[in-house]
Write a structure and sequence with these properties.
This protein has about 220 residues and is of the alpha/beta class. The chain has a single domain, classed as TIM Barrel (Alpha-Beta Barrel), CATH 3.20.20. It has 8 helices and 8 strands. An 8-stranded parallel sheet has the order 7-6-5-4-3-2-1-8, covered by helices on one side.
């Protein structure tokens, strides 16, 4: 089996260092863990970029809550993407829905094109969509390279059947990344069920918002 890439969602500078040192191949850089992750400040982005050697993907999410954005919020997302481009960040992570909780194709398409040549990942806003097969096609058509999902469930382990179907339906046109409660205690179950190319975890234990180095190391060993 080829080595599977491990992406660690980090919410502070310390976790970014821990993720790289413990074997992560990429980080998703966010702030405000308890709000589900929003766009980090430019100072944190610069600090992490100047230190890490592994790829950095930055979440583009101007606020917590739903993924239906106003025109003002959309303009802010565009500005945040341009900042990432100027800083030579490797990728951006975002997701936009319309009032029906369907993929906002026009805005997603615009942001994907704006992000070039950075990589783009559609995040777990996808899990709010009712028809995820149609939504998958729309995301592929927009040009996203990756889709982060728990299969519409509250965790990746509960959504394994759905994630596996998405991987099959994707026909290798996009990388499906299982995410949501992934830890060393359940990663083997996920790998055996759907054999993903990449996997996503925050590696956070208990109430601490610092990534757990031991947890990352354990997951990395399972993925080799």
């Amino acid at each position: 089996m080829n080595s599977i890439k491990l992406e660690i969602a980090v919410f502070n500078y310390q976790s970014a260092l821990i993720a790289e040192d413990s074997g992560a191949e990429r980080i998703e850089l966010c702030e405000n863990y308890f709000e589900g992750g929003i766009t980090p400040g430019i100072d944190l982005i610069k600090r992490v970029k100047n230190k890490l050697k592994i790829p950095i993907h930055v979440i583009i999410r101007p606020r917590a809550g739903n993924f239906i954005y106003s025109n003002v919020e959309f303009e802010l997302m565009k500005a945040q993407i341009l900042i990432c481009k100027e800083l030579n960040i490797n990728g951006c992570v975002f997701g936009l829905l319309n009032s029906k909780n369907e993929i906002d194709v026009q805005r997603c398409d615009e942001l994907v094109n704006l992000s070039l040549p950075m990589s783009t990942t559609f995040h777990r806003a996808f899990d709010e969509c009712k028809d995820r097969i149609i939504s998958l096609k729309k995301i592929i058509d927009c040009g996203f390279q990756r889709l982060l999902t728990s299969g519409g469930k509250n965790s990746a382990t509960n959504g394994l059947k759905e994630i596996n179907e998405l991987i099959i339906r994707s026909e290798n046109k996009i990388i499906i990344i299982p995410g949501g409660g992934v830890r060393s205690s359940n990663i083997i179950e996920i790998l055996n069920y759907c054999n993903p190319k990449e996997i996503h975890s925050s590696a956070i234990s208990g109430k601490d918002i610092i990534a757990n180095a031991v947890e990352i190391s354990k997951m990395r060993k399972y993925l080799s």
